[in-house]
Amino acid sequence: MERSPAEPVGPAAGTTRRAVVVAAGAVGMTAALAACGGGSSEAGAGTVLGKTSEIPKGGGKIFKAEKVVVTQPEGGQFKAFSAVCQHAGCLVGEISDGTINCLCHGSKYDIKDGSVKKGPATKGLPPAQVTVKDGSVTLS
What we know:
Residues 120-140 are annotated as: Disordered. This protein has 2 domains: 10-40, no CATH class; 48-139, Rieske Iron-sulfur Protein, CATH 2.102.10. The chain has one helix at 17-37, and strands at 48-51, 59-63, 68-74, 77-82, 94-96, 99-101, 108-110, 116-118, 130-133, 136-139. A hairpin with a 4-residue loop joins strand 2 (59-63) and strand 3. It is 15% helix and 30% strand. The protein contains 1 helix and 10 strands, in the order αββββββββββ. The chain is an alpha+beta fold.
């Protein structure tokens, strides 16, 4: 294609190759930072999960938004674990018969210590830090 003699060539033509590369990098970095930010959608220390009365003795409660499960294996004894199954990353879906159950592939974890009771998971649920005070359970 022939260029008209009036059309500028090089930097005077508008956008330089360097400007395009810099702009593309800036767009990519902005997208990466936005994806990793998480900030306001994830709970942090000091987040009140609920009342101790909501957590049944011999069972527990899953706090999906915070990705935490709190159990009460014995009266007045509260334990907390990550609610993310260690097999494929699904959130656990129920607590029954002394186990925390992942409904994706059938893994079961002990409500007392988060250990694997039934696979396919091979690692237990990592502990979460909570504080129990004045009838409330709070992320520590």
